[in-house]
């Protein structure tokens, strides 16, 4: 069906650095925090209270490491390793668990032997199924994204609607361009994101 209106293509774009207020906005244009989580993250951001290098468990090469989220709480390290090893040789794997109960937190990190293997998993494992759950796969933004604030401090990216704290700019929930903006297509912007985030290896 044709008509006289404009044909609107829903374009997306991704954050290459982190700012709590921007991450709380679906189109990245907010100028004030809209929930308590964003306010908490902004305080940490402005005061420089979070240092990713201070996480003793964040070991390995961040340029070869992926974040794997939305895992079933029944998924074990062995299962995660079995599935993710389809894409390359795994050097290190960490399933994040509750410090007291030992229960899975539903996400983990997988380090591959090479960046090439990591990129293959990034492309092919996203939205695959593990133990009946559709997973998300993204870069290890904790160590690579300037200004990063984790979800436990009100930051992070993604999230579910039920939580009331959606965060935008990542692979799972990219920014949606305002209709008046003329932005590049998703695949092209995704390449730009990759260049900006993982293309800055410091040797």
From TrEMBL:
Swiss-Prot/TrEMBL keywords: Nucleus, RNA-binding
Gene Ontology cellular component terms for the protein in this record: nucleus; ribonucleoprotein complex
Subcellular location: Nucleus
Domain RRM: 64-142
Protein origin, superkingdom: Eukaryota
Broad class of the protein's primary localization: nucleus
Key word Cell division present: no
Listed Pfam families: RRM_1
Listed GO MF terms: RNA binding
Protein name (database record): U11/U12 small nuclear ribonucleoprotein 35 kDa protein
Native source organism of the sequence: Arabidopsis thaliana
């Amino acid at each position: 069906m044709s008509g006289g209106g404009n044909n609107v293509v829903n374009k997306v774009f991704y954050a290459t650095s982190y700012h709590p207020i921007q991450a709380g906005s679906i189109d990245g244009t907010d100028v004030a925090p809209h929930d308590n989580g964003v306010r908490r993250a902004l305080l940490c951001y402005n005061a420089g209270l979070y240092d990713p290098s201070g996480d003793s468990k964040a070991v390995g090469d961040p340029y070869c490491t992926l974040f794997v989220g939305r895992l079933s709480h029944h998924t074990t390290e062995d299962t995660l390793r079995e599935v993710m090893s389809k894409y390359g040789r795994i050097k290190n794997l960490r399933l994040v668990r509750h410090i007291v109960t030992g229960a899975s937190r539903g996400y983990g990190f997988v380090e591959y032997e090479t960046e090439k293997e990591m990129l293959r998993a990034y492309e092919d494992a996203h939205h695959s199924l593990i133990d009946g759950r559709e997973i998300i796969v993204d870069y290890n933004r904790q160590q690579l994204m300037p200004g990063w604030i984790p979800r436990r401090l009100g930051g992070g990216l993604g999230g579910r609607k039920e939580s009331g704290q959606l965060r935008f700019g990542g692979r799972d929930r990219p920014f949606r361009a305002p209709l008046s903006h003329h932005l590049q297509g998703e695949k092209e912007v995704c390449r730009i994101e990759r260049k900006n985030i993982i293309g800055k290896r410091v040797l």
